[in-house]
């Protein structure tokens, strides 16, 4: 079984503290923590899994700020393109929810 290499103290987000004594989480415990985080902050509607990313490029807007332009083949059908302030790349043990 996969065990995280950082303790729950360092892995938990400051706006959603762990509800356990400091420990090294298993992948299942960390997944439950992340599910709780997503439910608590209403993030599920903003997360897309199993949708191939066709491109992700940085673009400077007219006001001087930078955004990510992400083009995705949406799993539910159709293609979507977003301008985002941040991009999360899930690899390794984080690539499968």
TrEMBL record:
Could you cite one Gene Ontology molecular function of this protein? NADP binding
Q: Which Pfam families match?
A: FMO-like (PF00743)
* Coiled-coil region: none
- Which InterPro entries does the record match to this protein? FAD/NAD-bd_sf, Flavin_mOase-like, FMO-like
Q: Which SUPFAM superfamilies match?
A: FAD/NAD(P)-binding domain
Tell me which UniProt keywords the record has, alphabetically.
Answer: FAD, Flavoprotein, Oxidoreductase
Q: Which family does it belong to?
A: Belongs to the FMO family.
Q: What is this protein called?
A: Flavin-containing monooxygenase
């Amino acid at each position: 079984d996969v065990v995280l290499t950082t303790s729950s103290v360092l892995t938990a987000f400051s706006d959603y503290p762990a509800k356990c004594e400091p420990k090294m989480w298993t992948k299942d415990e960390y997944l439950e923590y992340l599910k709780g985080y997503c439910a608590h902050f209403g993030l599920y509607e903003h997360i897309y899994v199993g949708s191939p990313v066709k491109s992700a490029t940085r673009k400077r807007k007219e006001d001087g700020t930078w955004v990510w332009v992400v083009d995705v083949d949406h799993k539910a059908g159709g293609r979507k393109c977003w301008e985002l302030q941040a991009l999360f790349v899930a690899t390794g043990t984080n690539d499968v929810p």
